[in-house]
């Protein structure tokens, strides 16, 4: 081992924290081979605090919305009935509240924003990571306790967002390729990511403000490629030491990222609309043409996939209503003989797609009265399905009592198709699609919650 070079000796190396300091210095001199070649290759003159902060600002505005709408989607499942996924979240439990039935498009909005924004921010997230990637190779890897903690929070932040995006995108493609439960992973992943995000924002907000003030966006958007200059060297080392010539200006970089987001939006929003627009959602499984006619809208789980047999939904089908000590059994003719109510309501699936249709059937509150529970506090709905997570659901009192809450028998003037839940299905304003149970076989009304 060569003798220490006196010119690099620091007086502090002999002090109280001399040993750790000497260790960092040794690390500093022994950067893993190759990493400096890699970082030296990153010479984009665009990298710098301003551009990083512009992407950061875009995420600072959108990410809280994605997080909050995601948590609202969870709350909409009525976790107090033990039917949200994951069921047991320990002390990460959200306060219980009754999910409202108004506005009827509430869940359509929250799930649409969560999934839609989650898709649209992907180019911004990638651009933001690109803008800071040299920091990943910072050497020595640990300079101080504060720096180690900051890097750990960044690991959770970057790992967290990539994990949430990857699992979310796979889930809406119905690609369950991971070996774990999506809901559990996405829920806990969300909390890890959110905690890291809060730390990151607290640490970096002052720098974001300074960086954004350092350049005029208007001037930046007017600067041609040839006139693009690197930002002045910054304390974080985002600006490369030896910047290369610009191949694209900041305007071009922002246009590329913004254009990418717009393109993703254009190829996905269609899933939230009916008519020809739905077919523009090329990137999504529910963007395909659902066929025409009164039952021509997307099917989540077909009758065949659910294992419900034709003989169970035919003349032999009966609806069993239970409640205040009585049991009522009705066939479809008896239901059709009751007062019919029509409502135009959405089905909104937590996986992002939604549709609005005109449903006709019997009010749930009329069925509750028939079962001897005129003031229901909850209702448990069963279907003919024997297995599957969504073969049953519990509805809150306000969801049973809403005048538009139906056991639907018909849609758009025609009988429900087998795939849409014939002989009868649940439709409730603002209820998550998963709880709009198809092929209903029985409802238990409870007066006490
Ligand atoms: N019995 C039963 N009902 C069900 C489901 C199911 O798997 N089984 N899927 C639910 C889900 S997740 C959604 S989004 C809606 C979709 O209704 P649709 O297939 O009529 O569009 O049905 C709900 N009803
Ligand atoms: Mo769904």
UniProtKB/TrEMBL annotation:
Keywords in alphabetical order: Membrane, Transmembrane, Transmembrane helix
Chain ranges passing through the membrane: 50-72, 113-133, 154-176, 182-203, 252-270
Domain Oxidoreductase molybdopterin-binding: 310-446
Region (Disordered) location: 220-243
Family matches, as Pfam families: Oxidored_molyb (PF00174)
Keyword Signal assigned: no
CDD domains reported in the protein's UniProt record: SO_family_Moco
InterPro entries in UniProt: Di-haem_cyt_TM (IPR016174), Mopterin_OxRdtase_euk (IPR008335), OxRdtase_Mopterin-bd_dom (IPR000572), OxRdtase_Mopterin-bd_sf (IPR036374)
Protein name: Molybdopterin-dependent oxidoreductase
